[in-house]
Specification:
alpha/beta; TIM Barrel; 12 helices; Aldo-Keto_reductase; NAD(P)_OxRdtase_dom_sf; oxidoreductase; NADP_OxRdtase_dom; oxidoreductase activity
């Protein structure tokens, strides 16, 4: 697979990483053995960046990755990212205080079974704290030898600039795809300017941009999708009708819709790193193929014509799901 650099000073990783939320039951039932097979396949496909969080399955995703690493033994073949900063306290859903992040980081290191984490994100910014102070805390973790680099998830370009003025920020994670192009209103550009990798989660639109989009039955398995505006009627039917054009275009190119969606993202800049997630090996191979597509400007124009900016019906989050991400436009 093609490779790209993770941050200004980070390692080379596969142009497509893996989003390990799917190792839990978030989008439907997942088995431990099935999840371990997915990690085997990631390595075989060259998807060498694994992106997880202490919140995915209440630590289950990290534990499974740790189990895989223990079975393999020897040097870790992946660049591993995880996150901290979200709490179970409804009165303070985000906590970026140094003591709390230290506690969460230590627990993640234990579950993963590693001495150092390659990339550690603040999962959601704490509005009670200046981002400069949080950046100093993260820089302290580097000095302590617990992490190699750090990033933030779902922050605004202005917040990134403030953090970067204190210490280089290796990555910002944000939802970015053909169905969610909000980052193009400043985040894509700021990341490129500062040498920060934009790690794009949900790069196939939570399956909207695949040949097998969610059905009512599969949506019923996920409380998140049940409450997400794009997967509620009448938006769901409208979205499926519109993106049928994209599925037809992918077939004309001779690739899967998922591969084409990933390929489009990879071509948005050398600093863009999609991290699709899946519980199925066949789908994993489809998204990995997107990392090797060579698309011309004419190809990209045809994709934009099939799914022009703003085509999706419904917001990407409900009011409740918007708790934490920074809005900036």
């Amino acid at each position: 697979m093609k490779q790209r650099k993770l941050g200004q000073h980070g390692p080379l990783v596969g142009a497509v990483g893996y989003g390990a939320m799917s190792l839990t039951d978030f989008y439907g039932p997942a088995t431990d053995e099935g999840s371990l097979r997915i990690l085997d396949e990631c390595l075989d496909l060259g998807m060498t960046h694994i992106d997880t969080s202490n919140r995915y399955g209440s630590g289950r995703s990290e534990t499974l990755i740790g189990t895989w690493l223990k079975r393999r033994r020897g040097a870790t073949p992946f660049s591993i990212a995880t996150k901290g900063g979200i709490t179970a306290n409804p009165d303070r859903p985000q906590n970026n205080e140094a003591n709390y992040l230290q506690q969460e980081l230590d627990a993640s290191l234990t579950r993963l079974g590693v001495e150092m984490i390659d990339l550690y994100y603040v999962h959601r910014r704490d509005p009670a704290l200046d981002i400069e102070a949080v950046t100093e805390t993260l820089a302290g973790f580097i000095k302590a030898g617990k992490i190699k680099s750090f990033g933030f998830s779902e922050i605004a370009p202005t917040s990134l600039r403030r953090a970067h003025a204190i210490h280089p920020v290796a990555a910002v994670q944000s939802e970015y795809s053909l169905s969610t192009r909000y980052p193009e209103l400043g985040l894509v550009q700021t990341c490129a300017e500062l040498g920060t990798t934009l790690v794009a989660f949900s790069p196939v639109g939570r399956a909207l941009l695949t040949d097998r989009p969610h059905t009512a039955a599969s949506i019923a398995e996920s409380p998140f999708l049940q409450g997400n505006p794009r997967f509620m009627e009448p938006n769901l039917s409208a979205n499926l009708e519109v993106n049928a054009r994209f599925r037809t275009l992918a077939a004309d190119f001779g690739v899967s819709a998922a591969a084409l969606a990933i390929g489009w993202l990879v071509h948005q800049g050398d600093h863009i790193l999609p991290i699709p997630g899946t519980r199925h090996v066949a789908h994993l191979r489809e998204v990995a193929a997107g990392g090797n597509l060579n698309l011309t400007q004419d190809d990209l124009a045809r994709i934009d014509a099939a799914l022009p900016v703003g085509w999706a019906h419904g917001d990407r989050y409900s009011v409740a799901q918007w708790n934490g991400p920074e809005k900036y436009c």
